[in-house]
Write a structure and sequence with these properties.
Immunoglobulin-like; 35% strand; five-stranded antiparallel beta sheet; alpha+beta
Length: 602
Amino acid sequence: MFIVFAPAVIMSGKAAGQIRVFAQVDSKRDIYVGENFTYQIIIDGENKPGQVDLTPLAKYNPQSTGNRDISQTSISIINGRTTQKIIKRYIMSYSLTADQAERIQLPQVGVTISGRTYRTNPVEVNILKPGTTDNLDLEVTLSQQRCYVGQPIIMTTKFYISTDIGDFQFNIPAFNSDAFYVEDPDVSNRQVKEYRLRTGMSVFVSQYRVVHKGKDSILLSFSKVLIPKYSGQIQIESTTVSADVAVGRVRSRDRFFDDFFGSRKKYKRFMVSSIPLALTVLPLPKEDKPHQFYGLVGRYTISAFATPTKVNVGDPITLTIKIGGGKYLKPVQWPALEQVPELAANFKVPSQKASPTIENGSKVFTQTIRANNNKVAAIPSIPLAFFDPDKGRYVVAKTEPIKLDVAPTKILTNADLEGRDFAPVNKEVEAIKKGLSANYKGLDALKNMGFSPLAAVVSPGYAVLWAVPLAALVLSSLIKLFAYTSPEKTALKRRRQACGKAVRQLKKITSAGPQQQNELLVSIMRQYIGERFDRTAGSLTADDCHEIIVDVTQDTQTADKYKETIAGCEAGRYAAAEVNIDPAKVKEVIKLVRTIEKKSKK
């Protein structure tokens, strides 16, 4: 038994020893209180992420900043012998923040890879306390101190600069809080510039010259929309900004260099903080809540129109619904047309829904409906339920009924198809009464008109008649044999190539502009499902893709991820919140496509 199992034990021990996990902190620069610093977990011997237990780092508010596969492959040829060396390495990066100036030791973290848990090494980090100065000031305000659950409020940050500064960094705990949904307000000012925070979130900054506390200053200002998730007293921690402030100049050893180029500025790290804020969030009342209510808080309007309004039974009617009244339309959902009794009873409403658009401050929904009987007189009112915080009660707004003129469908007869003016044409055949104009006598007028097959084959005139059609027949047969493709073969080829085509397109998506990446990703994902499962890609929604994947693969988890990715990218196109398409996101979608391809072949 020892002889049999000893090699297996040795091999398993060697395989397990191939993976090594360790941690490190970017120590190229000083780390100050309240600033984000990078904590990396390096996995040697594997090129895929592990499951990290961040519980030991919870007090430092860990936030993922992305993963990278930095594996390398090298090939060497020595004395005609080719050797391939593969180095697998994967980096998982996180952003941490410390709130006290001290030397800390980041504890070990568990990382599970292929069912086995590895532990990182502890890492020592020296947290420095930045200086303070009157030349920097920070103000953070809320548009309201009291609101309801789900009611959008505006948080405005103003950073005043009265001196020469270098690099600066915002730390805004409210943006990472589980208490809020965060989105961008309506930015109509063209002078704003996009600024990306260290956490990856973008803000749109306005810059002004102002006088602040008697000093000429530069004001950097931006706002975000916070939507409370739950009721209660929410404490909003202080926002901080750390900046490199010029405190003097440093001369180099070369006086000629200083005289010609000037001495370099000397910078020192300073920090400024805002005062903490408190927000009272009230719960929504339970009484008188309409059944159509799904969480909208604010003041909204709803309107609708249809075209055409004079139709036959079964003709398509384009119904357009506009919901406005508020600046923050991200929470607005598709109106539940199937829950309107009169609409569901008298109209055919497809389950497929097009993505909404934003036009002139309104969210626009478009749907095609069809009347199923000629007794329909109007499209009924469509309700929109929301909670009005000014009135302190629920409100149900409704569209005006849209009058219709629906005629019964006309049944076509043969007469309709032929036309009313159709009449048969009967003409008598006129017989030729005259005979031959002349008669000839003698044997010279006789000619042998008998037909001989052999003579037809040899005769040049007959050869053209039978050779050309025969050659055309042979050529067409060859073309059909070697080049003809049936619809079934075309569809099979399209299904086989769908996965490879999608993967190639996904790998090129990062070369597109940031504003086009969301649309390209959704288009590729829809195209893959359409070509792989013989569906029309342009009409597929996130729900359609989910149903198709579940029916074919029985993999609910993969279907959920596929649906969430499409829905998230579609939201990124029409909402203010940005959805970043980074290489890790592209790899995740490629993995989903290959998983679907693999399971659909079983």
